[in-house]
Amino acid sequence: MIWDVEFILGHMNYWLFIVLMMVGFYIVVAKGNLLKKIVGLNIFQVAVFMLYISVGKITGGTAPIFPADLTGHIEYDPSILYSNPLPHVLILTAIVVGVATTSLGLALIVRIREGFDSIEEDELVEIERAMMIADNAEHGSSMGGRA
Amino acid sequence: MAGDVEIREVAMTLHAQLPALQIVVPFMTAPLIVFFGKRETAWWLAFLSCSVSLVISYLLLMQVIGGGFISYQMGGWAPPLGIEYRIDAANGLILFLISLVATITMPFAYRSIQAEITRSHTLFYACLMLCFTGLMGMVITGDAFNVFVFLEVSSLSTYVLVAMGAERDKRALTAAFDYLILGTIGATFFVIGIGFLYMATGTLNMADLADRIQGQESSRTVRAGFAFIVVGLGLKAAMVPLHLWLPRAYTYAPSAVTVFLAATATKASIYVMLRFMFSVYQPEFVFHTNVLQILFIPLALLAMFGGSFVAVFQTDMKRMLAYSSIGQIGYMLLGIAMLNQSGVSATMVHMFNHGITKAVLFMGVGAFVLRAGSSFYDNIGGLGRKMPVTGAVIVIGGLSLIGIPGTAGFVSKWLLVQAAFENDMWPIALLIVLSSLLAVIYVWRVFEVIYLQAPNEWSEASDPPMTMLVPMIILAVACVYFGIFTDLSLGAAGTAAEALLNGSFGMAEPSLDTSALPLDVPHGAGDAGADATGGDH
Amino acid sequence: MARAMRARMQPGETTDMETFTAIILSMVIPLVAMFASMALPKQDNLRDGITFVCAVATFAVVLVILSNVGGGSTAAVELIEVLPGVSLAFNVEPLGLMFALIASGLWILTHIYGVGYMRGNNEKNHARFFACFSAAISGVMGIAFSANMFTLFLFYEFLTVSTYPLVAHKGTPEAVSGARTYLSILMGTSIALLLTAVIWTYALTGTLDFTKGGIMQGKASGWIVPVLLGLYAFGIGKAALMPFHRWLPAAMVAPTPVSALLHAVAVVKAGVFTMLKVGVYIFGIDFLAETGASEWLMWLAAYSIIAASVVAMCQDNLKKRLAYSTVSQLSYITLGVALATDMGALGGGMHIAMHAMGKITLFMCAGSIYVAYHRTEVSQLSGLGRAMPITFAAFCIGAISIIGLPPMGGSWSKFLLMVGAVDAGQQLMIVVLMASSLLNVAYLMPIVAKGFFMAGDDKVPTGFAEAPLFCWLPPAITAFGCLVLFVFAGEIQTFLAGMVN
Asked: What's the mean pLDDT in B74-103?
């Protein structure tokens, strides 16, 4: 395969998106601390926001604001190149959703810390396994000892 | 005379605005509930708004059950730029299911929640209404990005609802957190898929997307978009192997929440998946066919056998039912993977029938939790005799889950097996019936526990209060009713499958009389608007 | 319901309103008895009285159908179209009518017997017991009057579910595990095999209606036919064809009235009745004969006849012995279908009646012995005949009928089966039937001989000490019935002839 430098550079935004997304994804999967997971999740989401925003940008384009006169009549000049506003608008919504997710995740972490006294995943798993074993010991008799 | 005309005009306007009201009514109820802040008021508001939604969804379903669709432009902005709500027989049926279950769950929730949650009841109802709005919105909207927004509305409120089970078992918190991580990843995948589609086509309206995807089937962007969308929605639909969040979330959530989620949440996601697969991407899309046949059938079989098998070995009835749900979702995916009308309509019917069946069973669990404190088998032993109505309702629900003739579950199983035969997939037909044998085992264990085990001496259990009993009875009757009178479910599902498989209706004029719709330019503005949204950079 | 109650007319067939109402009533009246039983858990006499009246009424309703329809058959009346082309529909035809007559007639006797048994034995939960019993009868009536395979399947499963609590009635670990076997085999086979067969049939032919001469002609051929027949034969677990027979001995943990009516008459006969219906009205006797698809089934049935008889000989528990005897006798009827001749099918149909009368007698006698002396094993029966002469005489008559000797009803059905075997050119089957008769003698007659001629232990009274009246009267009546059936066998044959030609 020939390394087409132009191809690689031309799709720079995609490469950045992929790298950023994978970094975020890796943090979510690999880090045991719940807070770090939320951070990873944010990076992951931001990567996608970047993808959208970069798609909406048109080289040389300007902000898509049409000047209007006092009567409200819109002057549309076809010679001016505008960027595509729609992805930006969409991502505005997505950012709001992301913020909500983050805050909810953080709230849950606070509650988990109160309940379990830990926000490390491995410790939580350990506590839950102990709870599960206790459940089975208490209620497993209905399985005829098969639990 | 003048007054009459006025009333008629108001009625006409309201009628025309039904699709918007379907979403706006429950959505606005949520802040209202918080504003009033009283427990009883909150419940009444929520119940009222669910009932209104039910009526609206019924009216909408009746308009589209014979075929055709309603197109509604949000705020008067014409699609594809504006957000379009589009109701056909397929989502009409799902909207009806969701609002039906929500309305019936409300009275049940009142006492059940009192017993399981001590504080923040108003916030609970507000969250439930948001979740309800989100699910309805996902199903009703015709705009791909709007699906994401509603998906997140429903997901975020679901995380909160699940976490509210923490008073009984703190594991609800970690279950909610895990669900949050996985759900967000799923939703983000979905957004990536939508982004790819937008890059390839420059539009977000589903009907418009369908038109523009034609001819680009081999485009990698379009294919990658498909994969991302399927994975994203598959996660929300708890399709194996993306199901890991489901058993924990269902087990630790408050009973009323589990009832609502089990009957509606996964169904809404599966519907959206169906819509993307068949209406946005055409069934002839070769890559898509391969994915479905090679990937979905084994995964569906794995879910059917794996989910049911794990369910057999549970010691907690609620958890058992959660695993059973994973198995049942397998049946739905199998119907989709058959890629033809009989398969898809079997899936639609199963979504509906399984929704009411699982709602009945989870309500039964809720009643047990209310009386016995938990749903572990050794705690609910012999309760069927002490709580005769609850026991009878669980028997009906259980029989429907197995698929005994005369119950709703039988109808959908029959359709699925028949679809398999029609496609010459008779080994799969055999596997479907074999996997339902596992259902016999796990359901019958419940029957043995609640009837044949000796009751705990200390338990002075009796049937739950009327507010819980009546919803259970209504749904149990529905389980039998839809097993015998299948006009509604089969009729809607048949039309729905036809609508889905014939692809989108494109940006053509809707087949229904739209003169009553708010703007006189329902369509046609699409092409002009689409140019401004070009995706090159 | 615009399309409710739409009668599908076939030439020469109609269903008048009275007959239709009677069909519905025959299913509704037992349900009334069921609800009455559930509503009256404490008032024993009132509850059992209502059920008795309902049993008589059900029988009367079936008699009305008999007088209206005679040996003919009526058009199917569709109540509801459940799935496209598949509806809940009922009609009357000779075989089903005969089945309904037997079941409803014997219900009256079994109810009397059941009241005597449950009270004499101090069993618990009478209300639940009689409620489930009545529900089961309702299911049997539905099976008898089904006009298509779907309706039959619906009531078939209803029967399974409603009899499960009866088998588990005692609630002891043995009862629970017996009931588990019962349910897992019956429901397992019906869901895994029968349902597949039914849907497959529908996919092949587009209909499930019971039609004279079958619906398979020209729709199925080659390997599909024997495979489909196999799915039916094994799927109908209630027919207790080996190797799916184990539920029947397991069900013997139930109180004896259940074993008597349900596991000698209603449930097992529902199984072989379904076999006959499938053979005659789904496949068609001629079609089976042409394709030779049923030959393997004939050999399996023959094996089942002999093997179950041998197993019966080795059982010391009286009810288990009778259960294995039932397994063997049910295969007679399956054999009748598998022979694929008109005579074979007729013989099979008649055997339903003859075996029902004989076997219910035997079971009720076994129950009487249990009520009176709490003896369950064959080896404990020595000398009891002198204390309970009526019970043992009835047992003897029933046994003779099962063996197939004149002057008891069982001889005719066996004779017809042999004629059928000759028609089919399967002389070896005659040998099988004869051998089975000898085995029957070997496992049934020693019981009678022990009772009358061997000296009992010290707990057996020397004088006359019968079971309560309600326990010995019903078997005496059914024993007499065996004799009556011998005399009227000709009428039954003419009556049933309507189903084949």
From this structure: 85
Rg (alpha carbons) of chain A, rounded to whole number:
25
Question: Where is A55: in which H helix or E strand?
Answer: helix A34-56
B478-501 per-position pLDDT tens digit: 999 998 888 888 888 888 888 777
Do B and C share at least 3 CB pairs under 8 Å?
A: yes
φ, ψ for residue B23 (rounded to 5)?
-95, -40
Nearby residues of A65 by Cβ (< 8 Å), 6 or more positions away? none
Contact B315 A142 (CB under 8 A): yes
What tens digit of pLDDT does each residue of C68-125 get?
Answer: 777 677 777 888 888 877 888 888 888 888 888 888 888 888 888 888 778 777 777 7
The yes-or-no verdict on residue B535 having pLDDT over 60 is no
pTM for the full model?
Answer: 0.87
Quickly count: other Cβ atoms within 10 Å of residue C447's Cβ. Answer: 24
d(CA B145, CA C67): 71
Q: Which value, to the nearest 10 degrees, does the dihedral of the CA atoms of residues C437, C438, C443, C448 take?
A: 90
B191 close to B148: Cβ distance less than 8 angstroms: yes
What is the structure's pLDDT at B508?
44
pLDDT of residue B169: 85
Any idea where the domains of chain A sit in the sequence?
Answer: 8-59+81-140
Q: Which residues on A lie below 8 Å from B148 (Cβ)?
A: 94, 97
State both tokens at B252: 């630790």
Which of C199, C227, C244, C274 would you mutate first to test chain B, the one with the most B CBs within 10 A?
A: C199
For residue C128, what is the nearest residue in chain B, using CA coordinates? B385
Interchain CB distance below 8 Å, B378 and A97? no
Whole-number pLDDT of residue C446: 85
Who among C80, C176, C200 is closest to B448 (CB)?
C176
Contacting residues of B for A52, CB less than 8 Å apart: 191, 195
Distance of CA B107 to the CA centre of its chain: 20
Indicate the domain borders of chain C: 6-497
Question: Among the ranges A11-15, C153-157, C354-358, which has the highest mean pLDDT value?
Answer: C153-157
A-chain CB neighbours of B313 within 8 Å are 143, 146-147
Amino acid identity at A142:
S
Count the Cβ atoms, other than its own, within 10 Å of residue C335: 30
Beta-carbon pairs below 8 A across chains B and C: 75
Choose the CATH number for A8-59+81-140 among 3.60.150.10, 1.10.287.3510, 3.20.20.70, 3.10.310.70: 1.10.287.3510
- Among partner residues B174, B177, B315, which is closest to A105 by beta-carbon distance? B177
Residue B532's pLDDT is: 36
Which residues in chain B have Cβ-Cβ distances shorter than 8 Å to A87? 195, 198
Identify from B415, B422, B437, B482 which residue to disrupt to test chain C contact, counting C C-beta atoms within 10 A and taking the largest count. Answer: B437
Q: Is the pLDDT of residue C444 over 80?
A: yes
In this structure, chain A runs to a length of 147
Residues of B in Cβ contact (< 8 Å) with C202: 418
